Amino acid sequence: MAKRKVSNTLALAVLGLLQEQPMHPYEMASVLRERHKDSSFKVNSGSLYDTVEALARHGWIEPVETERDGRRPERTVYAHTKLGQDEFVHWIDELIRTPVAEYPKFMAAVSYLGALGPDGATDALAERADHLEARIEETRAVLAETVGSGRVPRLFMIEVECALHAWEAERDWTRRTIAEIRDGSLFWPRVERAEQGWTWSAPADQKGRK
Amino acid sequence: MAKRKVSNTLALAVLGLLQEQPMHPYEMASVLRERHKDSSFKVNSGSLYDTVEALARHGWIEPVETERDGRRPERTVYAHTKLGQDEFVHWIDELIRTPVAEYPKFMAAVSYLGALGPDGATDALAERADHLEARIEETRAVLAETVGSGRVPRLFMIEVECALHAWEAERDWTRRTIAEIRDGSLFWPRVERAEQGWTWSAPADQKGRK
DNA sequence: GGGCATATAGTAGGTTCCGACTATTAGGAA
DNA sequence: TTCCTAATAGTCGGAACCTACTATATGCCC
């Protein structure tokens, strides 16, 4: 499978918005924020303008007019093309169908959880769990006042439910891990420098060596 | 909180490895792969050399010798510094403690799940669920032959358990969503262009308008 | 013992991405 | 009226990142 011409997912958001109506980049950013889509897409003005240009280069969108309001900077309004419309659907299909490796920062840190020691680790994990809890509450509130009130169809906010589910899972894992460190079921080896590489203490009678 | 000098998590991996012993970049990559850490860190030789250079620039690591074996390219061996050691622990603590926004590609695509239509969506989601299932099985196998056999302490592979948990959650959400689309409990509005913006059909008697 | 795949070690070059900045207008406080 | 802030609209320079490539050495199959 050949690599995508434009791989930034912000491009997906742009294509999505232009399915509805022509827009200029600044408006795209505003609409995305209004609809809470800025939790699924990193909406950064620098990236946005780059992305729009790249999409135009490849013929997936095209400028339809440039307006100027007083002495404000000129704005270029873009519309999607037939090509862009097809690509939009194919891209979504591919992204849903095929999981790709991602490298969340948390996973990287958990890799070296050992470096914090059992107390440092439980402390840091506990704080994370609290932050996650707060974020989960906020998200639930957003869902309640949009989908819950019938103002927005549930399908249009489905990614928020998906994210919510992921955070809940992360919170649960975090809490469970804290508990396992506390009650000793996650054994904490003491690593020591040996003449050749490292040795670590083992839970029962096992001894390991790298 | 001031921004980190080097924010690439690959730098965390480098610091982690150098806590054990001095190494040259190529060896770091090999060791990371050996230990299955390449699922938490994107190990790319180009990025690796850049990252190592950046760490050296900031004084977190330093070159200790350059060797040459026959006519092979020269290799520079690096060691961590006191600064790098402190930074390593602080960085991990921060990453664990404070969740940061990330933008997985799947979330972006789910945002526009509607574009696939109910049948296209269930089809794509089902394929994803199968891929996830396969990945989960593989990961379990890896855990069994390392931690399960007592060759590696569980703490040293804890990030693999964390990832496993996340994938299981994603698989569950995916399966549940497929079921909800099929049985109609996730209502699929038909969106239509109106004179001003868009209208969509509503499940019961509700009507919405953006 | 010739050829081919793989492991070793790193470089080069370009694209993408992002934070920080510019400049104008509108609205309200004082 | 003037000052200050927020909103509007976008630019710019540099860091990060990744792909593709170079070049040597080694093992091994036939």
TrEMBL record, chains A, B:
Task: Report any Pfam family annotated for this entry.
Answer: PadR
Domain Transcription regulator PadR N-terminal, chain residue ranges per copy:
14-88
Q: Which InterPro entries match?
A: Tscrpt_reg_PadR_N, WH-like_DNA-bd_sf, WH_DNA-bd_sf
Question: Entry's PANTHER family?
Answer: NEGATIVE TRANSCRIPTION REGULATOR PADR, TRANSCRIPTIONAL REGULATOR YQJI
Protein name listed in UniProt? PadR family transcriptional regulator
Q: Which organism is it from?
A: Actinoallomurus oryzae
